[in-house]
Design goal:
Oligomer: single chain
Low-confidence stretches: none
CATH architecture of one domain: 3-Layer(aba) Sandwich
CATH superfamily of one domain: Vaccinia Virus protein VP39
Structural class: alpha/beta
Number of strands: 8
Mean pLDDT: 90
Strand content: 15-25%
Order of helices and strands: HEHHEHEHEEHEHEHHE
Shape: globular
Largest sheet: 8 strands, mixed
Strand order of the largest sheet: 1-4-3-2-5-6-8-7
Length: 231
């Protein structure tokens, strides 16, 4: 039954005008057809673009789209069964400033052009703890170099994670490379949220499904915000 429902969701998602599912051939070692044209073709405005990497059900992309109508949000994940939920909700609510891209994050630099993206959110990624998996870490050198291809010079990277290991790894990478750190805390909800700027307060009020589970179990939520380029 679950398998049938998943197939139905996949089929329904293919009819959604704000969901894009490029084939491997369309992104592998070549630019995707929308590269550099997301504002003009998809959103039809000149507003900033914010990506949510590994978006899962899209809670952040949809939640931020509700709170910030003057920004555009794109949730990216390879797992379409989860993505369907956020895509369905945003369509039902008539949100025109959110889209979804189903692809591997390894191909992300084939999907966005130079200076096309203003911010990146990385929400509860797999920490890839084993040394041989370092290349898979979303704040590691290989991925950071991909982000450089399309993130604006003053662009910002946000990370939320419940992994002590991944938080410390990401913080050390930022320090090692001289990226300006704007916010850092290893226990977000023990901090005074009002100490953050208003936009950050608004964003941090959004919680993913898994974040709710983590906090209920007493896990600390870590938050890191840095600029990718040197000032």
């Amino acid at each position: 039954m679950a398998g049938k429902r998943k197939l139905e969701h996949f089929a329904e998602m293919r009819t959604f005008p704000h969901v894009f599912e490029p084939t491997l051939e369309e992104v592998f070692r070549q630019p995707y057809k929308l590269i550099g044209n997301w504002r003009k073709t998809v959103f039809k405005n000149d507003n900033p673009i914010v990506l949510e990497l590994g978006c899962g059900k899209g809670e952040y992309a949809v939640g931020m789209a509700r709170k910030f109508p003057n920004k555009n949000f794109i949730g990216i994940d390879i797992k379409g069964a989860r993505m369907w939920r956020g895509a369905k909700t945003s369509l039902e609510e008539g949100l025109t400033n959110v889209a979804f891209l189903r692809t591997r994050i390894e191909f992300i630099d084939s999907c966005f052009g130079a200076d096309e993206v203003d911010e990146i959110w990385i929400t509860f990624p797999d920490p890839q703890k084993k040394d041989r998996r370092e290349k898979k870490r979303l704040t590691g050198p290989l991925f950071i170099n991909r982000y450089r291809q399309f993130l604006k010079r003053e662009g910002i990277v946000h990370l939320k994670t419940d992994s002590d290991f991944f938080y410390e790894y990401s913080l050390n990478e930022a320090k090692l490379n001289g990226y300006p750190i704007l916010e850092q805390t290893n226990n977000l909800y023990a901090e005074k949220i009002e100490d953050f700027d208003i936009d950050t307060q608004e964003i941090l009020s959004i919680k993913t499904h898994y974040e709710g589970i983590f906090t209920e179990k007493g896990h600390k939520i870590h938050y890191l915000k840095f600029r990718l380029h040197h000032d």
